[in-house]
Specification:
- The chain contains five helices and nine strands.
- By secondary structure, it is α/β, with parallel strands linked by helices.
Length: 191
């Protein structure tokens, strides 16, 4: 995830204006390690997700409405699948249904082997509402956060928007600063 110094995760609805070439390299390096990426539908639409470059990698799109371009590269490649509730309309793509009228993310993560049998590393890529739901469900084990040296104002969402008052204690595992003042952090859940 990337955040401005004043806490926004987006500028004009996208995270890219907060990022840098090195931050993008970090994101791609983490993606290369992941077996499954879990991402919210709004992020898929805003950021233009396509087929992954890693062979066999799956991308689970969390959606209640199913309102996504299922004819796009992400789904026609066979990499994309829906993580949704029983009430989400069938859109003709592989689907992991978890919950009757809401999406049970804990159950979704536990059932990912049904979609990707050898899943060992799951990476969540936001957006902020998905992050909040993952925090609420106690599913945050690690956070890779880049602090962008920018103040952006506006009303962009915080890193974990929509979550309840949840406390998840983390320990700083890595810290690096580049020549452009971007701060790269890796936080792990305190045990």
């Amino acid at each position: 995830m990337v955040s401005s110094l004043d806490g926004s995760t987006v500028v004009a609805g996208k995270s890219a204006p907060l990022s840098s070439p090195l931050d993008t390299e970090v994101l791609f390096a983490l993606r290369a390690l992941a077996d499954v990426i879990v991402v919210g539908a709004g992020t898929v639409r805003a950021e233009g997700y396509g087929a992954p470059s890693k062979a066999g990698q799956r991308i689970g799109v969390v959606t209640m409405s199913g309102d996504l371009d299922v004819d796009g590269d992400l789904f026609t490649s066979g990499a994309g699948f829906f993580i949704c509730s029983d009430s989400t309309p069938d859109r003709g793509v592989e689907t992991l249904r978890v919950g009757t009228d809401h999406i049970d993310l804990d159950q979704a993560i536990r059932r990912l082997p049904e979609i990707s049998p050898d899943v060992a590393f799951v990476q969540a890529e936001g957006g902020a509402r998905l992050n909040g739901a993952l925090l609420d469900a106690g599913l945050v084990d690690e956070l890779h956060l880049t602090l962008s040296p920018r103040l952006v104002g506006g009303d962009g969402p915080r890193l974990a928007a929509g979550s309840g008052d949840v406390t998840c204690d983390l320990d700083l595992a890595h810290l690096a600063v580049d020549d452009d003042s971007f701060v790269y952090t890796r936080w792990t859940r305190r045990t």
